[in-house]
Design a protein that fits this description.
The protein is α/β, with parallel strands linked by helices. It contains six helices and five strands, in the order βαββααβαβαα. A five-stranded parallel beta sheet has the order 3-2-1-4-5, sandwiched between helices.
Length: 175
């Protein structure tokens, strides 16, 4: 990996595996972070999976489509079944069917493939909570990468378990 030696503006790539602008914090966080970095003079691109964040100019959004299996109009089902011919999409669908949450993993694989081809476009990558194997390979082999962890999922799971009122609800937390 080539390191940038100047202290001038950076070409920054921000990653978020989902950027919902109205629910949860990832889309809101990425909007404000990207704007603040752009206001400091940096060139900022956001690569996001669906749902996509609302961003302020001059920040550029690069959409990284996935199956969007949590979309309310087609919850847990692909919008187009033909998309399942791609092995990564099939993995994503089957994992959700088995109760998994594959979005960070599949997003990371897609982003890794994309950024291998576009490595010259950026000086640094900032991963917003994806923490997938693809992002790890990106950091090791392609571009300098920094992660942000807002809170560990294990803490979320513990809190959900404490809040569960029935044995069935408690079981579903650790399914």
């Amino acid at each position: 990996m080539k390191k940038k030696s100047s202290s001038g503006p950076l070409k920054i790539c921000l990653l978020t595996y989902r950027g919902n602008p109205t629910c949860g914090g990832q889309g809101v966080y990425i909007r404000h972070l990207s704007k603040a970095l752009a206001d400091e003079g940096h060139q900022v691109d956001v690569i996001s999976g669906p749902p996509y964040p609302h961003l302020d100019d001059p920040v550029r959004l690069i959409q990284m489509p996935g199956l969007d299996l949590y979309h309310p109009d087609h919850l847990f089902w692909p919008e187009h079944f033909g998309d399942l011919v791609h092995p990564l999409n099939l993995y994503e669908f089957l994992s959700v069917c088995a109760g998994g949450f594959p979005e960070p993993y599949t997003f990371g694989e897609r982003v890794y493939d994309y950024l291998k081809k576009h490595r010259g476009d950026y000086d640094i990558v900032h991963d917003n909570q994806c923490l997938s194997y693809g992002i790890g390979r990106l950091a090791q082999n392609v571009l300098p990468t920094i992660p942000t962890i807002h809170h560990p999922i294990t803490v979320d799971r513990q809190e959900e378990y404490k809040a569960a009122k029935t044995l069935r609800q408690k079981f579903r937390v650790y399914r």
